[in-house]
Fold:
Amino acid sequence: MKLAPKLALPFALSLSFAWMQLATVAHAEDHHGEDHRGEEHRGDEHRGEEHRGEEHRGDEHHEMRAEQHHDNHAEHHEMHEGGRPVPPPRAAPPRFQPHPPGARPHGPMVRPHAVRVMRPSVAHYGAHPWRRWEHPQFARPIYYWDWNAIHTVSCTAEDSYGDQYPVTEETFAGFGLAHMTAVEDDALDRCYQESGGDPSCFLATCSHY
Structure:
């Protein structure tokens, strides 16, 4: 089919114009798709950075909690030994000076009844088999002992009636003055518990062999 010469030119121009419009629309759609994909890509990168930031902050928080737990655990270990507070260090004894001869300041100890000595109780150091008694503070004994030659120590507490409660515990390598406080307290705890809660229990003496 042939078009008349007068119609051929307008028809060709219309086809060219339609083709240019189609090309422009396709180019715009391609450009819009690239922009959309670029925005998605940038959004994914942003979310990835936020996620990595949260993970990093989470790791730092976990490390801080771990360090705090370690510090609390170390402090708790220093403040407690065998479930009770660790006493402050005891000073080394001064140079021994014998008492002057003559009567003692408090006079002779005379009791209207015989002193009863309870059965010795052997306990492992640090076990603390008796209930903890918050006894009044008192001046601790001063020991002039050769700690390296000691195998066993024994402390005796006495109640107001005169009954005595000895406690014997084995020593170990490195046992010294700082560990005597626990043995003394064990004797006081036994006295308080087995005497029926006598608040006048006091530390009578300690010895070793």
